[in-house]
Structures are given as structure tokens and as C-alpha cells.
Amino acid sequence: MNFGLLATALAMGIAAIGSALGIGTAGQAAIGAWKKCYMSNKAAPFILTVFAGAPLTQTIYGFLLMQQMKASSADPSFLLGLGIASGVAMAISAVVQGKAGAAGADALAETGKGFSQYITVVGLCETVALFALVFSMVALG
């Protein structure tokens, strides 16, 4: 078995699983927030899609890392460990980003205020995935 190729698939796949979970969480909250707006005859803010879609970027980071890993001549065992660890870090970042986005969507729809504060927290969750990507690329040399 080629553990190096398996590692590249895991880096992308695990990150994508996290994105799907995070998008699902934030998306459900956005839909629920829109429902509350409609029930109250308030305008439903389209900006809530930002919260729902934010975890998608971790899939992109997983893809970028996968490409870098494929081009690497590093030891396959190292690549396997790197792929799993980085993929899990990105996945967890996406999951918690979805939870933060869900809270932000609910709060923004209810109050109409605070978007910049809410998106800042979502961005902080994003930073973990960016660090995982960059530090993994540095480790690849």
C-alpha cells in the first residue's frame, strides 16, 4: 500500500468531513433564524449565508495541503501522520466554526446587530485551520 498517497487523501478527506459538519450546523441555524424572521414578518438577512458557508474553506485548505504533499518526497510514514493530524485539526476547526457561525446567525437575525463581532469569532476559528495548513507546509519543506 502506498501510504504517501493515502496520506494525501486523508488530509483532504478529513478536512472536507469537518467542513460538511460545520456547514450543516451553521446552515441549520441560519435556516432556523430565517424562519423566525418570516414568522415575525421581519426581513430575513441574506448575510446569514456567510455564517453557513464559512466552514467550506477548510476543504480548500485540505486540497492545498494534499497537492503539496503529493509533490513532496517526504517519508510516507511522515506524510501519513501529517495528513491525519492536519486533516483532524482542519476538521475540528470547521466544526467549531460552524457552531460559532450558528450562534452568530441566531444572534444577528434576532437583534440585527453585531455582525462584525460575530464574524470575528468565526474568523478566529478559521485561524486554527490556516495555522495547520501553513505549519504543515513548512514541515514538508
Notes on the protein architecture:
The chain is mostly helical and 141 residues long. Helices cover 85% and strands 0% of the residues. The longest helix is centred in the first third of the chain and has 37 residues, at 3-39.
How many strand segments? 0
Distinct helical segment count: 5
Q: How does the helix and strand content classify structurally?
A: mainly alpha
Largest sheet: none
Which blocks of ≥5 consecutive residues have pLDDT under 50? none
> What average pLDDT do the residues reach?
96
Q: Give, in order, the helices and strands.
A: HHHHH
Percent range of helical residues: over 70%
Strand content: under 5%
User: What separation lies between the terminal Cα atoms?
Assistant: 24 Å
The dominant shape is elongated
Rounded Rg = 17 Å
List the helices and strands and how they pair.
Blueprint (H helix, E strand, L loop, with lengths): L2 H37 L8 H6 L3 H15 L4 H36 L3 H26 L1
Helix pairs in contact: 1-3, 1-4, 3-4, 3-5, 4-5
